[in-house]
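For practice. Supply one:
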Amino acid sequence: MAVLTSLNHFVSLTRFPSSPFSSSAIRIFNLFSLKPSRSSASMSSSETPITTAPYGSWKSPITADIVSGSSKRLGGTAVDSQGRLVLLESRPNESGRGVLVLQGDKPTDITPKEFAVRTLTQEYGGGAFRISSGDTLVFSNYKDQRLYKQHITDKGLSPRPITPDYGSPAVTYADGVFDARFNRFITVREDGRLDRSNPITTIVEVNLSGETLEEPKVLVSGNDFYAFPRLDPKCERLAWIEWSHPNMPWDKAELWVGYISEGGNIDKRVCVAGCDPKYVESPTEPKWSSRGELFFVTDRENGFWNIHKWIESANEVVSVYPLNGEFAKPLWVFGTNSYEIIECSEEKNIVACSYRQKGRSYLGVLDDSQGSFSLLDIPLTDFDSITLGNQCLYVEGASAIHPPSVAKVTLDQHKMKVISSEIVWSSSPDVLKYEAFFSVPELIEFPTEVPSQNAYAYFYPPTNPLYHDSMEEKPPLLVKSHGGPTAESRGSLNLNIQYWTSRGWAFVDVNYGGSTGYGREYRERLLRRWGIVDVDDCCGCAKYLVSSGKADVKRLCISGGSAGGYTTLASLAFRDVFKAGASLYGVADLKMLKEEGHKFESRYIDNLVGDEKDFYERSPINFVDRFSCPIILFQGLEDKVVTPDQSRKIYQALKEKGLPVALVEYEGEQHGFRKAENIKYTLEQQMVFFARVIGGFKVADDITPRKIDNFDTSNDAQIEM
């Protein structure tokens, strides 16, 4: 349910360093009609009056409009034959429409307005487009889920469908590659024509040569799930990842290579990783070098996702660079690209990659001949996918002051040092003008309920250069429980978080046991203990911050979406730590989730929860009598992952109990909100809800509050029904 040491008695605080490319003298204009002033590093009381005001009541220029409008999502990057960057951006101001953009002096939309690039394969999608060496583009269209073909520079021709029209979007495609040898497109297909709740997943070929539409031909089948079909340079071998119920791809998966016959079929295949009984592993991201060597990421030896190479002649796997760090992410979406092979010869391979280790990201290049890793210094400090350009890299990432961005990185002739780097795309280009209001995250490590086991989080203190608190007051704290739950929060700029901290809230983003980024052992803390470990860690983190003097024990709130919404509801039902909560499309009934969920996650919670007794005892809906504080719920009405009945069921139960509760439902929204107006409304209503129910301050923004059942009377003025 996604869209991550051994100190026992104390917490370590580490501030992230500022980017070497950031300026200490960035000027700020038009903030509350003030004269131009310098950033917070050099603001003084002689230049700007500083007001003493209660936490939570501070006025901030980071408005909900700015947050919702800046939430462009990056759905992947590629380069065309000329080396120009092509990226997929999701635009909240266009109801979340996915648009392919050709970057340059003047970025140009490739996707016509009547199309939207997005696949619903496995509900979470990803891998929705691919560009050939000849600049042919194949993409998945959101409305009908068919594949379309167009040339990226020919605006005169409308995209042409290359898969049949089945009358409804029951068949979806993702993560495809071009096969120049047979002029076809090889892709993962999810076919729900017979059963939408249990679609058949295969790897198929789509003919690119004919003018007539043909039924795609199945190349690989028989398992429950497939991902990453990848062809070698000669189009003679196909690598892919597959896995089966009850496993998720990060639990146990297999990497296979199939040999392609003269007729285009796969006549012979060999298991490269995942079939050896000596290892429990989850291989991912296979990639062929230009010399035909197969690289991939797996966690077979040390429990961390490391880069490996297949020795085909002996059918052996060797580690390229053993490290207790994660070189890949869990396979929630298709098409991730965590590394690129930038130089290949008989003597050595140079691999550009990044890894996560104890809450930090590191970008660098691997030399497999020497087993060395050289760090690369660029403006970003938190990294995602990497795309190889012409004599450069395009790195997706962020930092404490940069929102999700793409940096163009040029290396020296030895491919070991950065010559130049620049941000070429940003989800919010104007964000630096608010830098004085940014709260810089502190990486914290805190003890858990289990002796000798610690957990991790990012703590954001209240920050606003125009205000300070009275010395007697501690700030309200909002604890965020991330989704997944097999996922990871990161300490990079998120304007959603800054919306809270710039108004005088403390905010902590918890990577509870079960999060990714810390290896398999940490990830498996949650097996059969979902609703226990995550809840304990979120509560423990809040209590630690209270004991550290960083939060007000009487004003502790918790919020989360999807699986994080479940942790929120479970924390409110089974613990007595928080005073209010917000659940965004969260799970209230685990049994209902299992019965109504989609195929990809239909067995996921079996491993996370346990037997039927555990399902009952950890479902908040079965223990409404234990809830004792106000809750606000937000739900998309087209959500197929966590259906609207989940929110409606807990809302009705809490309302009947007499607790203050509110439910907000959105037409046209699925699992995660994409429309700017709904992102804005959700943020504002959480803020004003908490302000009203935990007390102590009034928000500075002009927000009409949603009616709270069992709290507002019919005579209350300006209440939105």
About this structure: The first strand starts at residue 12 and ends at 15. The two ends are 30 Å apart (CA to CA). Residues 3-46 have pLDDT under 50 and may be disordered.
